[in-house]
Amino acid sequence: MGKAARAVVCRKINRPVVVEFITVDSPKRGEVMVKVGACGVCHSDLSATNGTIALPLPLILGHEAAGEVVEVGEGVTSLAVGDHVVASFIYMCGRCRFCSLGRPVLCVEQGRALSTLPDGTLRTADAQGKPLNVFSGCGVMAEYATMHVDNLVKIDPKIPLDRAALVGCAVTTGVGAVFNTARVTPGASVAVFGCGGVGLNVIQGAAIAGAERIVAIDTLESKLQMARRFGATDVLLAKPGEDLTKPLKKLTGGGADYAFECVGSGELAAAAYKAIGRGGMAVVVGVAKASDSTSVRTMTLPLEEKTLTGSYFGSCVPRVDFPRMLGLYMQGKLKLDELITKRYSIDEAPQAFADLEAAKNARGVIEL
Ligand SMILES: [Zn+2]
Ligand SMILES: [Zn+2]
Q1: pLDDT tens digit string along 148-185?
Q2: Region of 53 on the Ramachandran plot (φ > 0 left; ψ -120 to 50 alpha; else beta)
Q3: Ligand closest to CA 136
Q4: What is the CA(38)–ligand 2 centre distance, in A?
Q5: What is the DSSP string of 95-131?
Q6: Centre of ligand 2 from the C-alpha of residue 184, in Å
Q7: Å from CA of 33 to ligand 1 middle
Q8: Residue 241: pLDDT band by 50, 70, 90 thresholds?
């Protein structure tokens, strides 16, 4: 049985998002309908509303959510009605070379579910019956969503849905970059450029991994205060464009072992590379504009064995990493409560996006 629901929709680029009544069809073969409990407001959602990420409109936003299964389609055996789930915005085919290697974030079939379900069709329509696209096969900034079973991960029902939602993007992107991509070792020194939702999670990931020195860099004092609460041992307030290589080298004894770029800027990727010392690794986590590029002093790559690499969605395997992150939360090691700085009703969604743009929150969450 289909459902009537409210959803946050982007109709026009650079216009405020709108809250609309929509219809959500029942799941077909291999699909599941979820009653969404909470959805984080992520920079990627904002990027879809301003055209930085070009997705077809109209588009139901949202990809960082948790909820409860209310209906399962034919052939679904891994989830049942009543299960709690977190949405995973990467579609993985499970069969390609990268999926087989345990690197589903690189799945070659991923493009199939950028704005539709993986079969290229939609289960969502507006009040006039016109189809609505869904962000990354999810579109979970809505009271109900029908998704492919491979875009969902079952979780422990004891975990509150608003906290669980965050592992669907920001937490796994940041903590995963530390655990899976860089494999930060105890005692290491770490520099983190940008202390937004992802940067704070890089910082807490580095703290959990046992890094001895964690230097947070941001242009806003408020973000640096937050960074300290998530485990930064030192902070540097930067003016836009300022070169902080010298103070960073001083704080890290000649250069950090690891540096993370969490903004999406070629200039900062170069700064992260300069901040690492011999044998160090700079990891670009932020997604820059398509036209952006970066440069490094080429000879330092062989002579100092420095690494410049990237991390997409924390190089995660969702079915392994989501429960792992939530386990760390249940043990009191991973901070999720502190990450949510504001909760919004669905009607307040336009305000939630304005607050995100104004960098007011660590994470804003829409409760559904
Ligand atoms: Zn996101
Ligand atoms: Zn694949």
Answers
A1: 999 999 999 999 999 999 999 999 999 999 999 999 99
A2: beta
A3: 1
A4: 28
A5: SSHHHHTT-GGG-TTGGGGSSS-TTS--SEEETTS-B
A6: 27
A7: 21
A8: confident
